[in-house]
Amino acid sequence: QVQLVESGGGSVQPGDSLGLSCAHTASTYVMAWFRQAPGKEREFVAAITYHSEGTWYGDPAKGRFTIAIDKTKNTMYLQMHKLKPEDTAIYYCAASGRWGTSTNDYDYWGQGTQVTVSS
Fold it and tell me: What count of other Cβ atoms lies within 10 Å of the Cβ of residue 68?
């Protein structure tokens, strides 16, 4: 059983940066960030292989977000820059035994952390 715990969410202003962390017990898994805004479906943000061989970004994240993983700390990160109000959502980390960008591809989920971008 993989356990995932997100942290680092908060309230920021447009243009600010914010970093999220996901402490996990996963190994040899693909790990990802998704987000869900009120009234919307859960959306793929970024994914990374456990050994950092590859990364993939969803359209909202390209050019502004960076996903990383530190195996020595069992922690995955999402560094977000130039935040916009439309980035407001609950951000979830997830783990899977296979590569994918759909929620259906992921077997394990954290509880989520709120990110609010507002002036």
Answer: 14
